C-alpha cells in the first residue's frame, strides 16, 4: 500500500520477507537475500519478495 501511495511522487517502496533462519549455505543464505534486495532496488519491477 505504501508503494502505491508514493509511486506518483517517484518514490519506490519494496519489502523482502524472510520466513526462516538466515544461515549461509541454505535457502536463506545472506548473500542470496542481499542479491534479492539489490535486484528489487535496481529493477524496481516488484514491490515484495518472500523467502519461504
Any overview of this molecule?
The longest helix has 14 residues, at 30-43. This protein has 2 helices and 2 strands. 37% of the residues lie in helices and 15% in strands. The protein starts with a helix and ends with a strand. The protein has helices spanning 2-6, 30-43; strands at residues 15-18, 48-51. It is elongated, with a radius of gyration of 13 Å. With 52 residues, it is an alpha+beta fold. The chain has a two-stranded parallel sheet with strand order 1-2.
Mean pLDDT: 96
Which term fits the overall shape? Answer: elongated
Spatial gap, N to C terminus: 22 Å
H-E string = HEHE
Number of H- or I-type helical stretches: 2
Number of strands: 2
- Class of secondary structure makeup: alpha+beta
Model regions low in confidence, pLDDT < 50 over at least 5 residues: none
Radius of gyration: 13 Å
User: Largest sheet, order of strands side by side?
Assistant: 1-2
Largest sheet: 2 strands, parallel
Strand content: 15-25%
Percentage of residues assigned to helices: 25-40%
Amino acid at each position: 500500500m505504501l508503494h502505491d501511495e508514493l509511486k506518483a511522487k517517484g518514490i519506490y517502496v519494496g519489502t523482502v520477507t524472510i520466513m526462516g533462519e538466515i544461515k549461509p549455505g541454505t535457502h536463506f543464505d545472506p548473500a542470496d537475500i542481499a542479491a534479492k534486495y539489490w535486484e528489487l532496488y535496481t529493477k524496481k519491477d516488484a514491490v515484495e519478495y518472500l523467502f519461504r
